[in-house]
Amino acid sequence: MGGAGPRDNRSVGDTRTLRHADVPLGRIDQYELVCELGGGGFGVVYLARDTVAGVDVAVKGLPPLVKNNADELERIRENFALVSKLHHPRIAAALHLQQARDVSYAAEQVRQALRVMQGDTLMVMAYAPGVTLNKWRKQFPEGKVPVAQALEVCRQIAEALDYAHGEKVVHRDVKPSNVMVETRKTELSVKVLDFGLAAEIRSSMSRVSQE
Fold first, then answer.
1. Helices then strands, each counted (H, E), the chain
2. Pair 194, 1: CB distance under 8 Å
3. According to the model, what pLDDT value does residue 196 have?
4. Distance CA 64, CA 79 (A)
5. How many Cα atoms within 13 Å fall on the side-chain side of residue 181?
6. In the 8-state DSSP scheme, what is residue 91?
7. DSSP classification of residue 128
């Protein structure tokens, strides 16, 4: 989640200012693009507004190697269907996998970043506010999180993984950039991202590149 170029060192949540403009950066079906949230090895994620449901979501496309291969696309659909059944307060839900019908961009830069055109597959996920665990820990001297807070973060991550394992779903890519931390006064709220999705896309790209 191919390569995203200079965005590869950023992750969802490492964003400077949300809603920095009143004019949408584009629109894909009912989703108005608000701003770039970040990206990784498999593309860029955008914050979007679902104009039907009235909620914020995170959207992204699939790498060209995958979206243009029918067999791999079917594997992604099957994986997404499995992950979308996970409903837990510590997991950022996978909401929809849909074929984009009406696509428009306000700038070429956004089109090249998101790479979703009419007929392409769009991944829609629940928006997880906060910052990545990588960024969150940098607020502490030398990046050393106090024991009590570190244990609380680990506890919430473990809750998410335990629930998913009970549902026969394995994450396959647990790392700080896939964990969002939101601080509310003195409370921490953790959400785990990308349950199995990034790993499945990585496997698909590997198979296609070897054909």
1. 6, 10
2. yes
3. 60
4. 18
5. 25
6. B
7. -
Is this prediction's pTM over 0.85?
A: no
pLDDT of residue 7: 40
Burial class (CB in 10 A: 0-12, 13-18, 19+), 106: middle
**Burial (0-12, 13-18, 19+ Cβ within 10 Å), 104:** exposed
Local structure of 16: helix, strand or coil: coil
Residues paired with 58 in a beta bridge: 47, 125
Cα-based angle 20, 22, 26 (whole degrees, multiple of 5): 95
Length of the chain, in residues:
211
Residue whose pair of structure tokens reads 């499945």 in the numeric block: 200
Say what the pLDDT of residue 51 is: 96
Tell me if 31 sits within 8 A of 53, measured CB to CB: no
Give Cβ neighbours of residue 86 (< 8 Å, ≥ 6 apart).
Answer: 93, 94, 163, 164, 167, 169, 195
Among 203, 205, 198, which residue's Cα sits nearest to residue 67?
205
Residue 15, pLDDT > 70, answer no
- Kindly tell me if the per-residue pLDDT of 171 is higher than 90: no
What does the alpha-carbon distance between residue 163 and residue 204 come to, in Å, rounded to a whole number? 26
For β-strands 131-132 and 179-184, DSSP reports them as: antiparallel
Amino acid at 188: L
Nearest to 76 by CA among 192, 198, 165: 198
Q: Tokens at residue 134, please?
A: 């990588």
